[in-house]
């Protein structure tokens, strides 16, 4: 209710600002150039008129077609960068006397004008939501004009402050949540597609299921990121056993393990703004308080880059020792392996497990980073690589991306910080002994 009141108040102020400046005449009945509106917004000082101008800029932007938006971003880059005359004077002043005041003046002078423009646009009613969608459009524009990365760095800088963890609200999503929120959970699920309302109900309503999401006060009923959790008696090896409609429901109080089996970012315009690390840790702590019997917190995660990496290894083993027979086996299309007999499947599964260990523990990018993005996320958050599950996801997507392999990352609440430091400072992958035993000797 308080957010609705604040929204109504901001709209009222903006409307009054329009009246004060004769806004409809001022913009020339919607054909005043958007660049001029932006300049007027930056030069203005009144709060009411500023909100009205900000609303005018956003309204004008939303009417632009794709070429128009491309031109708008180019304008932000070319004409709303730093004030070069002011910056030059600040540099000279700093060189003459490198005082604290000179440093502060230099910092202010070096800031692109578009950052202040974005701050003022954010004052318009619903401005935050429009700016998030504006950054989505910017990603498209960057495909044809990579130099717009300078504009994106300003969006990212400001969003990093506006969507700071201190502003986020954690809410549980259940079957009684508003329908518009539930519809968005179905739409935004990015890991294991939700097959309609009945499937969603199976993920939310039973006593051994949970879903939590972060929300921002300015994006009402728009989840930023959500995590689906299964409460179980043991660490699962496959997504099939978690999502099965035939499984036996466990009472929450009987559960010993919380399984984070799907994490989905919802707002493309907030790409690169990290929420997931805070989400997992807070949900784990909240669940522990609610259910003291929980002593194990793990994920059941995809390995999205494994198949692509493995194809490269098959073509050129490099540092890995592979026999011709193994190369032939690994080169077989994953979909063909479904019909293998038991002995052949066991051999292939053992080989896949070994290669998945190589991929997660030893494979690196040219810059020395762990290749797999999901691994980087969880290891960077302080998790431990607990177990490799061959056959964990036999869906078409699972076979295509990872030959069916899934991984458990374990969040030991006492070791999270130590594991994070090892990964962040030394790029060390903390892994269980069971995973390390799968490693094959490197070629000499």
From TrEMBL:
InterPro entries on file: Malonyl_CoA_deC, Malonyl_CoA_deC_C, Malonyl_CoA_deC_C_sf, MCD_N, MCD_N_sf
Q: Any idea where the Malonyl-CoA decarboxylase N-terminal domain is?
A: 80-163
Q: Name one GO molecular function term.
A: malonyl-CoA decarboxylase activity
Q: Which GO terms describe its biological process?
A: fatty acid biosynthetic process
* Chain ranges of the Malonyl-CoA decarboxylase C-terminal domain: 166-412
The record ties this protein, via PANTHER family, to:
MALONYL-COA DECARBOXYLASE, MITOCHONDRIAL, PTHR28641
What protein name does the entry list?
MCD, Malonyl-CoA decarboxylase MCD
